[in-house]
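Why predict the complex rather than its parts? Because the way molecules touch one another can change local conformation, and only a joint prediction can capture that. The input here totals 113 residues.
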Amino acid sequence: MRFWRTPLDQKKFTTPHGRIHIIIERCKGCKFCVEYCPREVLRISEQFNKKGYHYPEAVKEDACVDCDLCESICPEFAIYSERIEGAPVESGEGEAAAPAEAESDNEKEARGE
Ligand code: SF4
Ligand code: SF4
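Output of the joint prediction:
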């Protein structure tokens, strides 16, 4: 998320982090968790489970924000995340937008550009 201005109380808040647990033998390799993870934490492993399916593995676990989407979407209840410590809220790419830039964007919009 990109802030126009840095909120004064930003330091009070943290971004949650999750640790992923995969119950490999339950997985049926549908890839829902991989496709829908908003942080691209998962990928399909080249290994097979006992049922003969490729199961997911966490490749960017540090990026997991414990949103529980993978847990909610998995039809086999084969994946879940566990909340661990929070980290400072990310302020997005680059610094907050300078007011002058914002004004010029608004001016362009008003001119229909
Ligand atoms: S909890 Fe959210 S961010 Fe973490 S792996 Fe699952 S879908 Fe991705
Ligand atoms: S959503 Fe569940 S069953 Fe599908 S690949 Fe992920 S862990 Fe396996």
